[in-house]
Write a structure and sequence with these properties.
Blueprint lengths: L5 E5 L7 H11 L3 E6 L2 H11 L6 E4 L5 H15 L4 E4 L18 H22 L7 E7 L11 H21 L4 E8 L5 H4 L4 H11 L8 H12 L10 E4 L9
Parallel strand pairs: 1-2, 1-4, 2-3, 4-5, 5-6, 6-7
Helix pairs in contact: 1-8, 3-4, 4-5
The structure holds ligand 1JT.
Ligand 1JT binds next to helix 6.
Length: 253
């Protein structure tokens, strides 16, 4: 399904990362992929994982530093000469911002969360578009806290709302270049990011009980949906937020 396609994956921290599940699903379909890592702390992890896939590339990229973003895309252009898809699976907010009340969010936490988690999509879409000469597909990760209040998710919910709106505006801009932009709204998954969150265990249990499928979604299921969204199977879909949450979002009382 993805033979002769080149992808760029942002957000692998370890083998449990949603970004890694997406990369594995795309690799299974024959894609070649470049991986970015945010800091030296993550370099070895990402290099080890990428080495298990054929013809991969690993490059540093911190979205807070535009120079590193430009360099990462230059490295992809040099190695592959083009880009067909991009998976954006990065978010950050200071730990204090993900507990207590939203009303106490500081200017600094707000700026950081929105810059890393939402603006970065626009940043990488702009850098990717000149390499997507044959059209392309961009996929980002959102969460239900973007549209309904989820206790403790706080400023990340605001950032994900901005991310989902950005998905629509980018889809409108880039559609003329046959570049599609979509978001996956994933149910909660126990990744490294989620690990730092208070009461994640009880949240996972609550969501599993309330969802139609009576379980939590897996990173693998999110990965398969990302593979669909970057493949030609989804050629008519852009600007959407697709739920991969075992149906949780459809439930009322
Ligand atoms: C971040 C973190 C973004 C955790 C995230 C996230 N998107 C989803 N999660 C899991 C989650 C977190 C909370 C939650 C429900 C799900 C942590 C690092 C910063 C970026 O609230 C009940 C807080």
């Amino acid at each position: 399904m993805l033979e002769n396609k080149v992808g760029m994956i942002f957000g692998v921290a370890n083998k449990r990362s949603i970004a890694w599940a997406c990369a594995a699903a795309c690799a299974e379909q024959g894609a070649k992929q470049a991986f970015t890592y945010q800091s030296d702390r993550l370099r070895e992890n990402v290099e080890e994982l990428a080495a298990t896939l054929p013809d991969s590339l690993v490059v540093p990229c911190d979205v807070m530093d535009q120079v590193t973003v430009d360099r990462a895309f230059d490295a992809v252009a040099r190695k592959y000469g083009k880009l067909d898809f991009l998976i954006h699976s990065i978010a950050f907010a200071p730990k204090e911002a993900l507990e207590g009340e939203f009303v106490t969010t500081t200017r600094e936490a707000f700026r950081t969360a929105l810059e890393v988690s939402a603006f970065s999509l626009t940043q990488v879409a702009l850098a990717a578009s000149p390499l997507m000469t044959d059209g392309g597909s961009i996929v980002t990760m959102s969460y239900y806290g973007a549209e309904k209040v989820v206790s403790n998710y706080n400023v990340m919910g605001v950032a994900k709302a901005a991310l989902e709106a950005s998905t629509r505006y980018l889809a409108a801009d880039l559609g003329k270049n046959n570049i599609r932009v979509n978001a996956i709204s994933a149910g909660p998954i126990n990744t490294l990011s989620a690990r730092g969150v208070k009461n994640m265990g009880s949240l996972l249990g609550y969501v599993a009980e309330k969802s139609p499928l009576k379980r939590n979604v897996t990173a693998d299921e999110v990965g398969k949906t990302a593979m669909f969204l970057v493949s030609d199977l989804s050629s008519g879909i852009t600007g959407e937020t697709i739920y991969v949450d075992c149906g949780y979002n459809i439930m009322g009382i």
